[in-house]
Design goal:
Structural class: mainly beta
Number of strands: 38
Strand order of the largest sheet: 10-11-12-19-14-13
Strand content: 35-45%
Radius of gyration: 37 Å
Number of domains: 4
């Protein structure tokens, strides 16, 4: 006859949703000069088929005509203006589902360059967003998501770009403007600092227009949209950007704020005390005033590090970065009640600042994802053979100096199929109970299982961490002893009062169970096991193996033995007697210790 196989058709659409913008958070992150777009949402895993994971490229499944990079966030949903950026499949290097809540899209180099060259790219003229029309997300069967549309998905600030717009704030019906950040410099081991163009005029030639002040108890009463930023009103949080200064007292620990979704902080001075002048350049001459130096300054941090990096012979302004004002700057370093330390950019001097005085400002920016995770933890681990399926044998760890979300771990390598990696916790567990005598590792079968693990923060992926998991051998040991039978025994009584009687010539059988396959050799003698019959020690002799792990010993009853309490096995009474008990066909001797077996 002809078989009629059942054809299963996948009609279930993916249930992807893209996270809408929420005040203080960002839906989309972009890696400047990397071309990686990270998008947050839910149910991205419904785009994957069985056996696919975070290494699977799904770019050909997605409808790229539904994705628009909205310069300034001013376009209608799913549409674009002439200045916005649209995409095609040929623009995409890869698209990968990193986790159920993250997808990473990598642009080809030409598309990355074209995007970053767009006028008003990033935050220079406003906040860029992403617009996605319904149907962008599709699975391998061609099923289309109907819930993935989003308008003006907020873009994270992009560290290194020329401007970051800080937007406005409305208090008591009045709108105040924060201005913008400009002229970024990266110093002090890679930290980013921006000149605070509080007036928003794009110039630092007159720092008076950009002045900021610490001490303030209320917002200005006038309706002027340009105002002097009052630092005490906003920069009152700890480094978690959540905990508020409990006493509102001057403290370098409470200098953080989230403005227009951007995590920023008033910089530290970089040195303590007043009337301090730092001479020379501790990090070496900066290569250019525009680029600065990202070398770690061993003596200073904060604004002193900015000055020091630009105090070289190849930079202009005697320590003043291009685009910054060569004047005094307010810092977060306290110096007694109502006083902070002030840094003179252009002179490297430190002096005291009364908190009612206004001077130029700078901000350190934190929240943009600009660095890849770094894998940490050991390169090796061990597991004992016969460990149960699901046993955790290794936990991957990674650090990321500027991650904005949770880490996602990915497993690869020649022996990856032996393990399961929890992508969130990094816990590596067994898919099999591994047997030392029968290894299944790839290659030479040496009981060393080789894998690699990477960590992703949504935009950047760490270098692969090679990990070798070694299976340790366990010697066979006695896991149980039981008196399993006797021939020709007669009984009297019933129930719990039953008494069995053995006669001369009857055979007692004892089963010794080993923890794993054991080979018995009787070439040099026959192993024995001590039985206790009425206080008399007798020896049962090895007879045969009923399986690779079950050894059968027997004893034939002789005349004169009498016991009313039954037969027991003495502890640690298994003796080789010239024979051997070894692991499999190898020469590793079994462990013979065992506990007493009570009367039977």
């Amino acid at each position: 006859g002809v078989n009629n196989p059942t054809l299963l058709v996948d009609y279930a659409p993916p249930t992807v949703t893209i996270s809408p913008s929420v005040t203080g958070t960002a839906t989309v992150a972009y890696g400047y000069h990397t071309g990686v777009i990270g998008i947050k949402g839910t149910n991205f895993s419904t785009l994957l088929s069985a056996g696919e994971n975070s290494t699977t490229d799904i770019k050909e499944r997605l409808d790229w005509t539904k994705l628009v990079w909205d310069i300034n966030g001013d376009s209608a949903n799913g549409s674009s203006t002439a200045s916005d950026m649209t995409f095609a499949l040929s623009d995409i290097t890869s698209a990968k589902v990193l986790s159920d809540t993250q997808i990473a899209i990598t642009l080809i180099n030409d598309k990355m360059t074209a995007l970053e060259s767009k006028g008003n790219f990033g935050s220079s003229g406003g906040a860029d967003t992403i617009d996605i029309s319904a149907g962008f997300a599709r699975d391998a069967a061609g099923n289309v998501s109907t819930n993935d549309a989003v308008t003006n998905a907020k873009m994270e600030a992009i560290l290194g770009e020329a401007f970051i717009n800080l937007g406005n704030i409305t208090v008591g019906g009045k709108t105040y403007r924060y201005g913008q950040l400009m002229a970024p410099v990266q110093v002090d081991g890679g930290n980013w600092f921006y000149y605070w163009d509080a007036s928003g005029d794009g110039s630092a030639t007159s720092a008076g227009d950009d002045r900021v002040v610490w001490n303030a108890t209320a917002w200005p009463s006038d309706n002027n949209t340009v105002y002097m930023p009052k630092l005490d009103l906003e920069f009152k949080y700890a480094s978690d950007f959540t905990t508020i200064n409990p006493s509102a007292a001057p403290s370098a620990d409470y200098r953080y704020a989230t403005i227009n979704g951007i995590k920023v902080a008033v910089p530290l001075a970089g040195a303590g005390g007043a009337n301090y002048n730092a001479g020379g350049t501790s990090v070496g001459n900066a290569t250019s005033a525009a680029a600065g130096s990202n070398a770690v300054n061993p003596n200073y941090d904060g604004l002193i590090a900015v000055w020091d990096a630009y105090n070289g012979t190849t930079s202009s302004g005697n320590g003043t970065p291009t685009g910054w004002s060569g004047s005094n700057y307010v810092t977060a370093t306290p110096y007694g009640a109502g006083t902070h330390v002030m840094v003179g950019i252009g002179a490297g001097s430190l002096s005291l600042l009364g908190d009612n005085s206004s001077y130029a400002g700078a901000l350190q920016v934190f929240n943009t994802n600009n660095s890849a995770p770094v894998m940490s933890g050991a390169a090796t681990a061990t597991v004992t053979e016969n460990a149960t399926i699901g046993t955790v044998v290794y936990t991957a760890t990674a650090t990321d100096q500027d991650a904005v979300g949770s880490m996602v771990y990915t497993l690869s390598g020649t022996d990856q199929g032996v393990f399961t990696l929890n992508s969130t916790t990094g816990a590596l567990s067994l898919n099999y109970s591994l047997d030392y005598e029968n290894p299944i590792d790839s290659g030479v079968r040496d009981n060393v299982y080789n894998i690699t693990i990477t960590a992703s923060d949504g935009l950047y992926t760490s270098a692969a961490k090679a990990v070798a998991i070694t299976v340790n051998n366990v010697l066979p040991s006695v896991s149980g002893i039981a008196i399993t039978g006797q021939t020709n025994a007669t009984s009297s009584g019933s129930g719990s009062s039953t008494v069995y009687t053995l006669n001369t010539g009857d055979v007692i059988t004892v089963k010794v169970t080993m923890s794993e396959a054991t080979t018995v050799s009787t070439a040099g003698g026959i192993p024995t096991l001590n039985l206790n019959i009425g206080g008399t020690a007798v020896q049962a002799r090895y007879a045969y193996s009923s399986s690779t792990t079950e050894l059968i010993f027997t004893y034939t009853v002789v005349a004169g033995l009498n016991d009313t309490n039954g037969i027991s096995v003495d502890a640690n009474s298994l003796s080789l007697n010239g024979g051997t008990l070894t692991e499999g066909s190898g020469a590793r001797n079994a462990t013979l210790t065992h506990t007493v077996v009570a009367v039977d």
